[in-house]
Amino acid sequence: MPIWKSLVSRPDAILALVLLTAVVLAGLCAPVVFPDGPWRMVARPFIPPFTDMRHPLGADALGRDLAASLMYGARTSLEIGLVSTCVAILFGAGVGGIAGFFGGRVDSILMRSTEMFQTVPSFALAILLVAIYAPSLTSIMVAIAVVSWPPVARLARAEFLSMRRREFVQAALLSGQSNLRVAWSQILPNTLSPLIVMAALMVSMAILFESALSFVGLGDPQVVSWGYLISAGRGVMARSWWLTFLPGMAIMLTIVSISILGDAIGDSQDPHFERKEDL
What we know:
The chain is mainly alpha-helical. Helix content is 73%, strand content 0%. The radius of gyration is 22 Å and the shape is elongated. Mean pLDDT is 86; it is low at 275-279. Its main location: membrane.
């Protein structure tokens, strides 16, 4: 089923697409709208929102434009979310796919290795990795990818294990096709729906992970992110609520939008979705 049909059939997906598009455009256009970057002091401190149209979202404790910080923060948060999720999906799907396709001893070794990563709480492991390699965008993305791939591996393993027993897969193997070709052309397309939904959830979780790491002081000090803005504004929350409220709203709307779109795209890849709509 075409993705656009799934989106059109859901008003919440249309709204989510509009919101997410706005966030992406804000991140892409940040260097054009604010060529001097988010660190420049351009106004007096603690300007409330909508009181100075030159700085419509107000200014922080150092007189830096909050709108600029939010737009540059969108770039950072989306970059971390997308890159870490892509790495986790590729690695996790590869490990889980191999385990589910071959089974036996290969499955046992790979799944026991996966469980080793899951014995440590995800956020604690992410903090440990970032602290060891010093806070930076690269270390944060690697840490998030490392704690995110095990659930992907378990999902991919279950899907491949189920598909491996299907008649069309057995027929493809008996016809002489290689294991790699069968896994790539016959099994993987039928596992995309749950993987896409999980990827959307992982992007959301990656943004939350980065925000939490920045909140505890383990964010990259060279870049602005939404988590950094919340951390910087928490000390003056009683006086300047907007410094934490606006980045928090940006995080919430982005995460909800990504989750809704992931669900809609997953429905579009589900062969039973159109039948359900007809009923």
